[in-house]
Design goal:
The protein is an alpha+beta fold. It has 14 helices and 15 strands. β12 (about 345) and β13 form a beta hairpin. α6 packs parallel to α7 and α12 packs across α14 (about 405-425).
Length: about 425
């Protein structure tokens, strides 16, 4: 699968010429004078220790040895103990079949990266040539959409339903490719980008049944699943739904996790998991772009996680989920109180967003600028989340993550007032 699924640039990726000699210097037991690596001298590093206060009242201290690691070049796939901790967490949560695969190409590999977006960008480049097709929800994260636009791939938008992508539409789209027609088969979509939990912007969570059907279609039509699961820990229902990685017997899922929603976005750290054949080539990409993710952030988080343990980390994630669940419920009540009869919506089962349709407003971007901002409240208009952003949208995305609880209620109240006034005066009305 590897050679046929890679883009032309992906096929060209290879290990850094430095790697052979730096590995020899690190791993040999022969006494030697190492004149190979062009590393800065640690005697010149300015930071020799640090102490961080945690919200729970505890603290972590970084030694001079920690700070030497933090200020040096790191391994491409992450600081070893930190990466191993993340691998332990990934296996505990997902139990991917590939963790015990006899096929080295399919075997699970975990890699630290500079956040989910960096990993997604690298993976898409690994797979996509100019003009090649890929599958994507009809409305999705606009920053990644912009990256894909620059790559000049050919997006196929899949219709979304309350419980995830429309399987009927997905099957209809894929049915035009037949493996017996080799020329046409080679033009099938290379991957399906999907946010399984708390989809941004529209908040859908893909049902377990649809996850199984999507994976079966990936097997049948031989495409890769890019599983962007930044909201995995913000699933409000128990138990958490199975990930695509948890069902990946083939080694066709690359999963992207993020610390942005549960620890802090400024650390710029995430981790990806997938088959060694693909993840190893992502090493080769990061070595000529970032070289590695931020080492100081890795050292700090490793000390925090080691202090917490995996169970402590999951307990914190549970508290964060409860925090956002309360805000979701406050927003849902405010929408019911102030937008009843004016809007259509579904209460999200995970994530940070509610997707609201305003049927009487034909262009929510224009409506936002002319009638809503003047009332001292800002939402995100729906059109920016579509492949064709020039088409007006009747939707708005409401984020309930940061605003205070009282502002959530007041903001929806003001939105309701603006919709009523617009409807009454026929401004922006279809």
């Amino acid at each position: 699968m590897t050679t046929t699924i890679l883009s032309e640039s992906g096929k060209l990726r290879r290990k850094s010429p430095f790697a052979r000699y730096s590995m020899f210097g690190r791993e040999t037991t022969i006494p030697h004078i190492d004149l190979s690596p062009g590393l800065p001298n640690p005697d010149l590093f300015h930071l020799v220790g640090a102490k961080f206060q945690l919200r729970d009242g505890s603290a972590i201290e970084l030694s001079s040895e920690d700070m030497e690691i933090a200020q040096s070049y790191g391994k491409i796939d992450g600081v070893k103990p930190f990466r191993e901790w993340l691998e332990e967490l990934t296996i505990k949560l997902h139990k991917p079949p590939t963790r015990i695969s006899p096929d080295p190409d399919r075997a699970l590999q975990v890699m630290v990266n500079a956040g989910a977006l960096q990993g997604l960008h690298s993976a898409a480049n690994l797979l996509l040539n100019k003009g090649q097709r890929f599958l994507i929800p009809e409305r999705t994260y606009p920053t990644f959409l912009e990256a894909l636009r620059v790559m000049q791939g050919d997006p196929i938008g899949i219709k979304m339903e309350e419980d995830g992508p429309s399987i009927t539409h997905l099957e209809e789209v894929l049915s035009q490719w037949n493996p017996d027609d080799k020329e046409n088969w080679s033009k099938r979509p290379k991957f399906f980008y999907i946010v399984p939990n708390g989809h941004n912007p529209s908040g859908e969570t893909v049902s377990s049944e649809k996850r199984l059907k999507i994976y079966a279609l990936a097997q049948r039509y031989d495409f890769i699943i890019l599983e962007d699961d930044s909201y995995y820990f913000l699933q409000f229902d128990e138990p958490r739904l199975p990930s695509f990685l948890s069902m990946d017997s083939d080694g066709r899922v690359i999963r992207f996790d993020s610390f942005s929603k549960i620890i802090g976005a400024g650390f710029r750290l995430g981790w990806l998991s997938g088959p060694r054949a693909l993840v190893s080539r992502l090493f080769y990409d990061i070595q000529v772009t970032l070289q590695h993710a931020n080492v100081l952030s890795q050292v700090v988080l490793y000390h925090i996680f080691r202090q917490w343990g995996v169970d402590g980390f999951l307990e914190r994630a549970e508290k964060i989920k409860e925090f956002y669940l309360r805000r979701r419920d406050i927003l849902a009540k405010a929408v019911a109180d102030h937008l009843a009869g004016l809007a259509k919506w579904t209460v999200p089962r995970s994530g940070m967003f509610m997707w609201i349709e305003l049927p009487t407003i034909k262009d929510t971007e224009k409506f936002l600028m002319e009638a809503v901002v003047t009332r001292g409240v800002v939402f995100t208009p729906g059109n920016i989340f579509y492949i064709d952003k020039s088409v007006p949208s009747s939707y708005v995305r409401v984020a309930y993550s940061k605003a205070s609880e009282s502002d959530l209620v007041e903001g929806i109240k003001r939105l309701g007032e603006a919709v009523r006034e617009a409807s009454y005066t026929d401004t922006n009305v279809e």
